[in-house]
Structure formats: C-alpha cells, structure tokens
Amino acid sequence: MTQPVNQTEIQKAILEQQSADNRKKMILNGVLLLLLLAAPFAMYPVFLMKILCFALFAVAFNLLFGFTGLLSFGHAAFLAAGGYTTGYLLSNFSGLTTELGIIAGTVAATVLGLGFALLSIRRQGIYFAMVTLALSQLVFFFLVQSEFTGGEDGMHGIPRGHLFGLVDLSDNYNLYYFVLAVFLGCYLLVQRIVSSPYGQVLKAIKQNEPRAISLGYNVNRYKVLAFVISAALAGLAGSLKSVVFQLASLNDAHWHMSGEVILMTLVGGMGTLLGPVVGATFVVNIEYQLSQGPLRDWVDPILGGIFVITVLAFRSGIVGEIQKFVKKNLG
Amino acid sequence: MSMIFGVPLAVLAGQLLIGVINGAFYALLSLGLAVIFGLLKIINFAHGAMYMLGAMSTVILFDSLGVNYWVALFLAPLLVGAVGVVIEYFLLRRIAGQDHIYSLLLTFGVALLLGGVLTNIYGVSGLRYAMPDVFQGGMKLGFMFLPYYRLWVIVMALLVCFGTWFMIEKTKLGAYLRAGTEDSQLMQGFGINVPLLISLTYGFGVMLAAFAGVLAAPIYSVTPVMGSHILITVFAVVVIGGMGSIGGAIITGILMGVIEGLTKTFYPPASSAVIFLVMVVVLMFRPSGLFGKEA
User: Fold this and answer.
1) CB proximity A151 to B under 8 Å
2) Membrane-spanning regions, if any (chain A) (predicted)?
3) Interior angle at CA B21, CA B20 and CA B24, nearest 5
4) CA B6 → CA B3, B14, B17, distances in Å?
5) Tens digit of pLDDT for each residue in A264-275?
6) Does A303 touch chain B (CB under 8 A)?
7) Cβ contact A109:A266 at 8 Å
8) pLDDT, tens digit, for every residue of A47-91?
9) How far is A156 from chain B (nearest CA, A)?
C-alpha cells in the first residue's frame, strides 16, 4: 500500500476508488438486468408482472414519502384512476392501441394528482396524511357510484390489445418485456430525478422545511411537482396492472391499498431507490405464499404484524439496514 | 302531510334524527382522537378498531357471560381502555420522539392486526345484539316517531362529550393534561408523572371510542370491519373541525352528521361523499379547519 503524499495523488486515489465503485455497480446492474430478462422462463410471467406493477407503484410512492417526506395515505386513488381509465378506454374503443390507453390512464392520474396536491399541500405532516386519505375515499365513492366503472363488480375482460398496433400483448412473454421496459424506464427516471438538483431540493425540504423556505425555495411548488410526478407514475402502474390482469377492481381504490404501498416502501427501505422494489417483491410474495397455505385467511393480520414490527424495530427497511451494515463493516 | 322542498316533513325529520345520531358518534370518536392528539401528538389510526372492540366486546360479553347492557356500558370501555394502555405502554412508548408519522403507521398496523384476527374468529357478516327491553318502542312527536334508544344515544353522547370538555378545560386534571401538551419536560420537573399521564390519556381517548362502540351495538351491525368504515369519515370530520379545540370536535361531529342526513334526503347518491366534499371546501378557504388555531 502506497500512501498518497500530495493533493493530486489523493484526488487520483479518490477517482480510482470511485471508478472501481462504479464498475462494481455496473456489474451488479448488469447481472440484475440479465436476471430480469431471464426471469419469465423460470417463473410465471403474470406473477412477475404483478411484482413489477407493484414495484413501480411503490417506487412512485417512495418519491413522495421517502425523498420528500410527505406521507400520502391516498395513493390508491391514482392506481385506480390509471387502471379504470385505461380499462374503460381499451374496453370501449377497439381501435385504440394499448399504449395510448396506458398513456391516457397516466394522464388521468396526473390530473387527479394535481387536484389532490393543490388541496392537501395546505396541511402538513399527519394532517397531510388524513387529507389525502379522505380525498382518496372520495374517489372510491365516485367509482362505486358511477355507471361506467361497473360499480361494485369493477371491470372485467379488458382486452390487452396490440402494442403500437403491431405486437400482440395477449402473449404473456411480449407483455412481460413491455412491462419490464416501462418499469425500468420509470426507475431510471426516478433515479435521475432524485440525483438532480431538483431532487436535492426535495431532500432538503424533507430534512428541514423552514430552512429550505428561508433559503428562498418556493417549497410548495416543489412539493406539488413531486406529488404530481408520483401520482403520474402510480397511475401508470395502475394502467399496466389493468392490462396485465385484464380487470380493474375496487380493491385498487380501497384505502387498504394505500396502506399496502406504505408497507411495501417501509419494509423495503424508504428513501432508498431499490427499497420499494425489494419491499413490493417481499409483500407480493408473502401474500401469494400465505394465500396458498393454511394461513390463507390470516394475510391481513400478518401484514399488520409486519407493519408493527417494521415500525418498532427496523424503520430503515431491508435495503436501509443492509446499507447500514455495509457501511459499518465494509466501508 | 306537510312538505318541505318536495320532501314530506316526516321523512326529513327522520333523516335529520339519523343525522344527529350519526353526528353523535362522529363527535364521540373525533373527541377521543382530539384528546389523544392533544397530549401525545398521535393520530390514532387504531381508533376505529377500538370502537369496533367496544361493540364486539359488548356482544361477546353478553353471549358468553350474560353481561347485560348496563354493565357493558362501563365494563367494555374499561376493558378496551386497558387494551389501549397496553398498546401505549408496549408499543407507542417505544417510538416516542420519532416522527409522528411512525405512530400513525404503528397504530395502522395495530388496527389491521386486530381487525384481521377478529374477522377470522367472528367473520364479517355481523353479530346481532338485542336491544334492552327498556328501550323498546318510542314516542310520537306528531310529525315523527322517536325511538327511545335513539334518544338515549343522543343524550348519552352529549353528556359524555360535555363531561370530557368540562374535565379538560375546567378541572385541575385537565390543566395538567393541557400543561403536559405545552411542555412535558417542565411538567416532569414539577414532579408530575408524565409517562403515566400519557398512558392514561391514551387509555381514556380509547375508552371514548369504546363507549361509542357500546352505544352502537344495538343499532348498527356489529362486525370486525365496522371501525374502518367510520374512521375515515371521522378523519374528515377532524380535518374540517381542526384539531385545536375539544369543543370544535364535538360541534363539527354533530354538524357533519346533520349535513349527511340532509343530503340523504335531498340527493341520496352524494350522501356518502358529502362530508369529504365539505372537507375539500373547508380546506380551500380555511386550511386550518373551522375551529383550528394553528396557522
């Protein structure tokens, strides 16, 4: 080991260290990508797509909760807005290609998100959570009462259609790669947002809002934008989900769903990029495994228990705890 | 039959009565939330579950031990209050000092846990609880029929609400509670056992919810999910009223019940949403709520 002696050598050493880190990261990412590409040949594609949809939902939620510090208890509304809009359009306009239906669903969720944001941003902390919860309940009632949503039954038999009018999405493998591409695109987008100057301001708001205000940032505008982006991505997740399962149900709009996405983010690790993905994978798997076994009726209380334990014992979540461990022992 | 805006007076009066009764429940529940929030700064997401426990334990106590309504009126809130103290002591206390959001999430987990376990044992179809004989029948008021039990619910709810308001705003114990809200460290310095005060406050807030549950047992269907339905409405009521004042919680609760009843008469499809719509309007013009003090 040579001791760096002057400034330039220290800088060089730091740069080398960074590029070594980057190389490690790239290798890791490459392996993950290969695994994702190969996954449908090892597992049931629809199950994998379910995980991807919920992972996207949780990533969207985490942008708001983990990075901006705003706990929305109404994100189910956006999932449902996306899902129902896409479902309605694809069911009723046969000429529509799938991606247009999905875009329309995302736009609907975005507009709804803007409305939510403008109202809820006036309150902070737990009030913010209550306002978003109440607003999402309003959306729930609307979906129950309206004719076009199928009321209590929801929508069934939504056609998957053709991507760009060309690629047949009724084939599970085609659909999987489409969903994967959308998911990865969104993941990279969120990664980009978080590391951008804008993302830094969001983190500043989370850490110390009065300080961010005194530094001259128009905090509310930043929050509204973060909320709208989060709602849009959540809507996109809902749109994809309705195409994958060919149905849109009231479950998506119920506040249990809003609670579930909080759980996914918290268990995986809020404020980390990979956390929500890990959390979604974990929760979807647990729900699936439980529903197959003798504990099939105990999903809710078990999720509740996981919630309690996570809040009490490991608030940084799976990814957060691993990061802490790595920092402590290997860093 | 006299008509008001094309609606028979008796129908209107009947819906108003139901509105006042629902409002009485909203008031009791939002009052408990306000009390807990005041001292602990906790949004008690398990409040609906405690209301449900109050109603469920009334039915279960009667079915298994033959405990009658009058005993249950005291026993059920005490039992549930004890559950609340346990939750506070073993769970909430561990995350004191963390962001308030965590206490909301923790109590949400507790609500999920309790609701899920009871659903597995008792199902969601609803338990039946026979109304005590005293309350059979009602009185004719000329324009409407007033069942005795409904009258009893309104009177009891108002009494308990007023009693709570009086205790917190006018007595020495209430002064301690309010002082603890302002500066709990200083209170401890004066030799007051603040952790005990906190446990008891949580227990008391939860007792209010359980008391509402006992009142609800004979008239609403008693199921493990009854709490989660009403809780979100109560949250909206709390946002409308503003958390600042105890009196505000009571007045807003009853007011919202009445508005809901009126909507049911004149435009039924909107009745389940109207409280949330009121919340939206209030947020636009008075973000801190009708009675809220903070800016």
Assistant:
1) no
2) 26-47, 54-80, 100-119, 126-144, 173-190, 224-249, 261-286, 298-318
3) 85
4) 6, 15, 19
5) 999 998 888 889
6) yes
7) no
8) 999 999 999 999 999 999 988 888 898 999 999 999 999 999 988
9) 24
Q: In angstroms, rounded to a whole number, what is the distance separating the alpha carbons of residues A96 and A83?
A: 16
Which of B90, B112, B225, B228 best tests the A interface by mutation, with the highest count of A CBs <10 A?
B112
Q: Is A10 on the interface with B (CB under 8 A)?
A: no
Is B137 a residue whose pLDDT tops 80?
Answer: no
Instruction: Give the pLDDT score at B294.
Output: 55
Asked whether the beta carbons of A110 and A126 are under 8 A apart, the reply is: no
pLDDT in tens, B51-88: 999 999 998 888 888 888 888 889 999 999 999 999 99
Count how many residues are written for chain B.
Answer: 295
Strand-pair partners of B145: B140
CA atoms of A147 and A100, how far apart (whole Å): 23
- pLDDT tier at A320 (50, 70, 90 boundaries)? confident
CA–CA gap between residue B176 and residue B159 (Å, rounded): 22
Tell me the ipTM for this assembly: 0.82
- State the pTM of this model: 0.86
What separation in angstroms does the CA of A119 have from each of A85, A225, A256? 22, 13, 22
The DSSP secondary-structure symbol of A298 reads G
User: Which residues have a Cβ under 8 Å from the Cβ of B26 and sit 6 or more positions away?
Assistant: B230, B233, B234, B237, B252, B253, B254, B256, B257
Q: How far is B188 from chain A (nearest CA, A)?
A: 25
CA gap A3, B123 in Å, rounded: 70
Domain ranges of chain A: 43-329
Residue B295: pLDDT above 50?
no
The count of residues in chain A is 331
Query: Is B269's Cβ below 8 Å from some Cβ in A?
Result: yes
Residue B97 at interface with chain A, using a CB cutoff of 8 Å: no
Provide the shortest C-alpha distance from residue B243 to chain A (in Å): 9
Q: Which residues of A touch B120 (CB under 8 A)?
A: 297-298, 301
Give the integer Cα–Cα distance in Å for A232 and A116.
Answer: 12
Q: B10-53 pLDDT, tens per residue? A: 778 888 888 899 899 999 999 888 888 877 788 888 999 999 99
Query: pLDDT digits over A177-210, tens only?
Result: 999 999 999 999 999 999 999 888 889 888 888 8
Are the Cβ atoms of A125 and B95 closer than 8 angstroms?
A: no
**What φ, ψ does residue B46 adopt, rounded to 5°?**
-85, 5
DSSP SS3 for B74: helix
Q: Where are the domains of chain B?
A: 13-226
Query: From CA A25, how far away is CA A95, in angstroms rounded?
Result: 44
- In angstroms, rounded to a whole number, what is the distance separating the alpha carbons of residues B237 and A73? 16
Residue B35 contacts residue B248 (beta carbons within 8 Å): no
CB contact under 8 A, B279 and A131: yes
Distances in Å between the alpha carbon of A73 and those of A6, A57, A236, A270, B79?
53, 13, 18, 15, 30
Q: Extract the tokens encoding B133.
A: 């004989």
CATH tag, A43-329: 1.10.3470
Residue A270 near residue A62 (C-beta atoms within 8 A): yes
pLDDT in tens, A112-124: 999 999 988 877 7
